[in-house]
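2024-03-11 09:14:02 INFO queue: dequeued item F-box domain-containing protein, len=496
2024-03-11 09:14:02 INFO validating residues
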Amino acid sequence: AADCCPIEWLPTELLERVLTELDQTSLGRCAQVSRLWHQVVMQPLLWTKIHIDESNWEVRSKNLVDEIVKLPQLLFASANLTCLSLDHVEVCLVKSLVTLAGRRCPNLRELRLIRCGMSLTTKSLNSLLAGCPSLSLLQIECKRLQYAVDLDCAPLLTKLVQRLSSLKVYIDKFGEEFDEYYLRPFFGHVAEFPQLASLSIQIIEFSAMLQLLARMPSLTQLELNSSLRLCGADLLLPRSLPPLRHLSICCELDKDAAGIQELLGGFPQLQSLQLELDSAGRSLPTSEVIGILRILPANLTDLRLRLYAYAELNDTEETDWAKLLPPRLWRLELEGHKIIQGTGLELMKSLACRSTLAELKIDFCTDALLPALLSQLPHLRSLCITDCSRLTRQAWANLRDLQTSAAFQCDLHEFEAFGCDCSLCDEGVAALCTSPIARGLRRLCLQPDRCSRQLTAASLASIASGCPWLTQLALNAEFSDAELQAFCASYQHSVK
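2024-03-11 09:14:37 INFO prediction written
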């Protein structure tokens, strides 16, 4: 049109502002358009975040070698760089890159070193300490700690950690033999880490880690991963603990849940809690599961409980869910070895009273429970059922009755159902899509464990007519290219 012009005709300053909104991959593609675009894209101002990934050997050998060699030149002129991520970069290069980043990138805030070999040495740590005063996040992933960190420069690493607000450490080969090499280089004998607000780390002994927490007064987010059992008898809580708001624990339970109950009692300000507990095949009494739920902080809004133990919570009137679950939950996930037994309707009654609940993920469902979940939680926006094996076809047919329900208020945006091999067919999808549930769906995931032959192009037609706002669809079935093209053509917007 006469009032249009190619984007490269824009003033260079304006074009640079537009390009600052693109990610690294998109910038690289723009650089290949023409020589002019290459000159504009290579302005250091645009490269505030750099991620180099050499994990794919084919890509590395063919495409990245020249760019890797040029990376020091880019860092040398990147005073505006704020985030640097190096993934599987060769050992011979990574040391010089980290050192150069410390010297030439004064605004660096985030540094991620993922399987890069020896990258934190005396030289590179001194460079970061002297040249990157704003560095606040350090992430290290490696097979063994001594492969990534020169343990002789532990005091320098401890000094760097004192400045950080976020530390993430992931070690593949992790066990008791690495105890003295693991925590000491990061935390040493420094009295306090006043800036540290987020910590994600693997641990060997809970009590030793808890003593360290007393030296982190600003810590609000903690993620602990341990392969050892959490035993209440060995747990010593210090007098002073940080005001944690978010806690994630993955560990193996001892003979009972006393340890986890005592640990949770030390953090009454928790708002978000993720527990992944494994009993290693031992039976866990129902009373222990109830004990965990009863100790939950009253202000908890986000609860994700994955209990891989042989325990049951019978969904009966005697199970007082109203007292077991915090009153202000907006997200709830209950997963494990089918912990909840029964219809689930008693749990449903308790959840319906919680006007704040917006996200729900459970690993069971029954014919009576499915329509209740989809109709009686007025503020629910996301529902995920990870195991629909108990459902029959009647469960989906019951959704048609929701059309005549005057009390229907749900405005669901995301619905995921897994393991629905036996119950879901074209008629079930049609019942779902003709119900009021489908009107507001943005994301729909119907995933039988095996590719379903019961779902045909008729299901696509039902979804297209009943889900006008859909943007993402996952359907484990076989369709022809023509059927998929016809489905996408029925929308004026893109559907992935």
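2024-03-11 09:14:37 INFO annotate: Residues 365-496 form a domain with the Leucine-rich repeat, LRR (right-handed beta-alpha superhelix) fold (CATH 3.80.10.10).
2024-03-11 09:14:38 INFO item closed
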